[in-house]
Please model this.
Amino acid sequence: MSAIRREGREIKRLRLLIPTFTCIPGCSDCCGPVPFSHWEWEKISDQRKATCLDCPYDGEAGCEIYEDRPIMCRLFGTVDHPQLRCPHGRGPEKMLTAQEGAAIADQYAKLVGGYRNDELVEHLRAGHGGSDASGSR
Ligand code: SF4
Ligand code: SF4
Model:
């Protein structure tokens, strides 16, 4: 099996670990430039590079690649951590713990060559939960 297919299998497995929830329609308040793994990037037919602090897929009606959005977008709003909670209070019935979020982010970081969100992973690992719900990115 090729490296990219192996990576795709891993990404699909990580996706299944992340609970889903319904966002406010059209909202993209937590969006910004995000990293893609090679496999995730290959799935995007209209590849646009970020040239500023906005995500190039943040459209008028929300995310334009919602079904193919990368793992970090899927994690946002699902982890019980100030940096990853939805500023509008949306989220799944059962949030991931900071440690569960860290484990997923860490596995993902290893797949994404060159990208390591070490600071976030370390925060999550340390379980810096707190009660500040204003976290956004
Ligand atoms: S997680 Fe919250 S801030 Fe982000 S798009 Fe959904 S509703 Fe908006
Ligand atoms: S890919 Fe979609 S969900 Fe992720 S930051 Fe961009 S617009 Fe937001």
Observations:
- Residues 3-20+29-125 form one domain.
- The longest helix spans residues 3-17.
